[in-house]
Write a structure and sequence with these properties.
The protein has twelve helices and 20 strands. By secondary structure, the protein is α/β, with parallel strands linked by helices.
Length: 420
């Protein structure tokens, strides 16, 4: 087993964090005291593991009790995405904003970026979204340029590419096929544009073996450029970003202590699947200890070919709360998405998970009505059967209705998965 080992700077920052929380955090004061930690001596990883995990429910129930500064010191107010529950508030100080900038600048460097680059931001920078702000701050810290276009609007995206010659796009990857389709329909020579890479957020583009998944293949099959995957969350205020070798997201040890745990809360071995657990270093407003993200990834402890030491995270296989038990088979939503992304005729869809009267999971795929035919239905069901050994229910609705369900004004990205 490859145990997590703290670097000397991490150990120093952990001790500083524990003292800070014991002084300023109403929530963690109680947790540290109940665990009986002796803060008069240096603490290590074994001491950290004496503390209980922090969960999303803890954050929701005791939100403001995690705040370590007076609200007069808060300069930015953000919330989590609220994918599976109500959004949770996070409060950032000026120091936390600078930490975001440091993280994203390093992430850009990891993805081959430099001061000569121009980034085109295809995500929102408003709607209480931390990541959009982080990207802008990171480009500024790097000395690079930034074109803030926001989500959607293919015409404006291509007009901006033509006008400002960005070298890197920052986008939700499922939008890129739509961007390509718009270019093809309007005679835009996208293959010879200034864009050389895409930083993909919010959705996986790789399988657990690091090969591109169907969405990733669909993009590079049309457009010869480099895709970089990044995994982040509001709670960690940092990111795991791929390098050019595409072998998992790299940990920034200056900003996070990473644990990868099994169902019993024990560290998993190199190459095994585990839940991402993080402790945030250098956060002033709302630091977290042993926070269970609910995200399941494969853990890679060995150094990367790029020379950076481990650990690295494989793509998110799914979230523990999103595990679907359907017709005797356990699956995660990304597996369903991967099958749907294989079909070039499908440009939008929504997966609906419900319960029957016996509390068994039911999975229905909503698709555009213009695809409905016996041949298409049989082809898709056969593909699901061969790939996942189960067949979901298919429902065809109007394009307008599906678009309305997918693109909610209050949401930051398409709502490809819903639970009812």
């Amino acid at each position: 087993m490859n145990e997590t080992i703290l670097t000397d700077p991490q150990a120093q920052k952990l001790n500083k964090l524990l003292h800070y929380l014991n002084t300023f955090s109403p929530y963690y004061q109680r947790i540290i005291q109940e665990a009986g930690l002796d803060l008069q001596r240096p603490a290590g990883l074994s001491d950290l593991r004496r503390l209980p995990f922090t969960t999303k429910d803890d954050l929701a129930r005791h939100n403001d009790a995690f705040l370590c500064v007076p609200k007069s010191a808060v300069v930015d107010y953000v919330t989590t995405s609220g994918t599976l529950s109500d959004p949770v508030a996070f409060y950032l100080t000026d120091s936390d904003i600078e930490r975001l900038a440091d993280n994203e600048a390093e992430s850009f460097r990891c993805a081959g970026g430099g001061s000569e680059d121009v980034y085109q931001l295809m995500t929102t920078i408003d709607k209480r979204f931390m990541a959009g702000l982080a990207y802008w701050m990171g480009a500024r810290r790097l000395g690079a340029g930034m074109v803030r276009v926001g989500p959607g609007a293919p015409f404006l995206q291509w007009e901006s590419i033509s006008r400002f010659s960005p070298t890197v796009l920052i986008a939700i990857p499922s939008f890129i096929p739509k961007l390509i389709a718009y270019a093809e329909a309007n005679g835009i020579d996208y293959r010879n544009s200034s864009v050389r890479s895409i930083i993909c957020i919010g959705e996986p583009i790789r399988q657990s073996n690091f090969e591109l998944n169907e969405l990733g293949k669909r993009i590079v099959g049309k457009w010869d450029l480099q895709l970089y995957s990044t995994y982040a969350s509001t709670e960690m205020g940092a990111a795991f970003t791929e390098c050019k070798y595409g072998k998992g997201g790299h940990l920034n040890p200056e900003l996070l202590i990473l644990e990868m745990v099994d169902e019993q809360g024990n560290q998993v071995a190199d190459g095994e699947l585990g839940e991402v657990v993080i402790s945030t270093l250098g956060v002033e407003g709302m630091p977290l200890l042993r926070y269970r993200t609910g995200d399941l990834c494969h853990y890679h402890a060995q150094p990367c070919d790029c020379g950076r030491p481990g650990p690295r995270l494989g793509p998110v296989v799914g979230r523990k709360q999103q595990m679907i038990k359907f017709k005797g088979t356990t699956i995660f939503p990304p597996a369903l998405f991967d099958v749907l992304d294989m079909i070039k005729e499908i440009d939008m869809y929504q997966v609906v998970v419900a319960k029957d009267e016996f509390q068994n999971d039911l999975v229905t795929i909503l698709l555009p009505m213009d695809l409905e035919s016996k041949d298409f239905r049989n082809m898709l069901l056969s593909l699901f059967k061969s790939r996942l050994r189960v067949t979901p229910y298919l429902s065809f609705i109007t394009t307008d209705e599906l678009s309305f369900r997918l693109y909610k004004h209050e949401k930051r990205k398409p709502e490809k998965l819903i639970y009812i």
